Amino acid sequence: PYNNTAEKLRGPSGLMMANATYSQPTVLALIFGELTAVKYLYGAIVFLIFLMIVASSSAVIGTIILHRSLHEPMYMFIAALCMNGLYGGICFFPALFVNLLSQVQTVSYIGCLIQVFGIHSYYGCEITVLAVMAFDRYMCICNPLRYHSLMTSGTVLKLIGAAWLYIIVLVTIHVILTIRLPLCGSVIQKIYCDNWSVVRLSCIDTSLNNVFGLLMSSITGLLPGGVLISYVKILRVCMKSSKDVRAKALQTCTPHIVSLLYFVVDILCEVVLLRFPFNSIPYELRIIISVQAFVFAPLLNPLMYGLKLRKIRVKIGQIFCPKNKTEGHGKM
């Protein structure tokens, strides 16, 4: 069902026939199913979610940038996490919105590859930024005496840059390996483009793509394990500390753990779904699982960090309600 044209080009032995010819499609079709039946309702929902992601992420990012008192490692990492959520939303929602309201749900081959790069770099950067956030919390709680001398602004920017660069390099290689593949099919069995959906349309052997994808997933997959080990060590230190220190550590670490666990579980569900035939799982369930990472993580991260952490919450309030800030100074 995924590669009908490619199957027709294969001989009885399963090898590609020598005299087979093919042409690279310039346009790929997306499968939206029954979503188009109420496209204006879904379009309004998509637009509203995107606005909420842009507004909440921009509020947190802008607040941290504008207030020097928030130029601390923890808040700079939070800004990087919200930037990535905003980036993921931009890669996903505008294209989805346009396709929902269009008569035909298609994407150009180049546009598909661009979305593949955007979506996979968003996935990867979410994990790497959460990993450096865990490292920051580990240093702060387990090595407090050396924390401020080691975690300078320069170090923080280097860690964020390394987290992004690492994923950009890996995803770029991944996409280059996909570009070299001639495609015999032109139907993406999803509402957006991801790498596996494009690779499975290939007319030729994809072993190199599969091996590199497995290697990339394995290396990046080690990071959540390292993060969990860091938090286990943090919890051990907290258990030996005072009640106030324990409460403060849990307040700052809990959002990180929730973000990581939710995101990793969502990606694992998506990977497992890809291994099943398309028609073996209800299409609605596939859609729900495949879009969760673009909806809940970008929405929850600004809310958890913006509303949970008092220092950010107060600064956001001062930006949108400057009158309260003036009154507060007057009372002092």
From TrEMBL:
Keywords of the record: Cell membrane, Disulfide bond, G-protein coupled receptor, Glycoprotein, Membrane, Olfaction, Receptor, Sensory transduction, Transducer, Transmembrane, Transmembrane helix
Alphabetical list of InterPro entries matching this protein: GPCR1_Superfamily_Member, GPCR_Rhodpsn, GPCR_Rhodpsn_7TM, Olfact_rcpt
- Main localisation, per the record? membrane
Supply the Pfam families for this chain.
7tm_4 (PF13853)
| GO CC, any one term | plasma membrane
Q: Does this UniProt record's set of keywords contain Transport?
A: no
Segments traversing the membrane: 40-66, 78-101, 107-135, 156-177, 211-232, 253-273, 285-307
Q: What is this protein called?
A: G-protein coupled receptors family 1 profile domain-containing protein
Tell me the membrane topology, using the record's own terms.
Multi-pass membrane protein
Respond yes or no to whether keyword Cell membrane is given for this record.
Answer: yes
Q: Where in the cell is it found?
A: Cell membrane
Per the UniProt entry, what species is this protein from, by scientific name? Xenopus tropicalis
Q: Which residues form the G-protein coupled receptors family 1 profile domain?
A: 56-305
The entry lists its GO molecular-function terms as:
G protein-coupled receptor activity; olfactory receptor activity
